[in-house]
Backbone:
């Protein structure tokens, strides 16, 4: 059961956005990864069982992708 979803906004090194989006899109728990324009280069949508699992995914898997310089995790809330 998925309890937590988030958008992860990613800044990359110059010219690395496409490779980062491809690599992120292949990770377990990632439901979508797209190149975008603006202050961020890639946006990833990811899901996990709880906030701790989501945090571990971001730190140990997503941030480990070559070419990433910064991430911003935005948990999805249901108002």
Residues:
């Amino acid at each position: 059961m998925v309890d937590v979803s988030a958008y992860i906004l990613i800044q990359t090194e110059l010219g690395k956005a496409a490779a980062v989006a491809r690599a992120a899109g292949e990770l377990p728990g990632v439901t979508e990864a797209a190149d975008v324009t603006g202050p961020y280069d890639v946006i990833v949508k990811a899901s996990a069982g709880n906030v701790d699992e989501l945090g571990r995914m971001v730190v140990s898997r997503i941030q480990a992708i070559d070419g990433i310089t910064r991430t911003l995790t935005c948990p999805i809330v249901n108002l």
Notes: The CA atoms of residues 30 and 51 lie 15 Å apart. The two ends are 20 Å apart (CA to CA). Strands lie at 4-12, 30-35, 42-48, 68-75. The first strand starts at residue 4 and ends at 12.
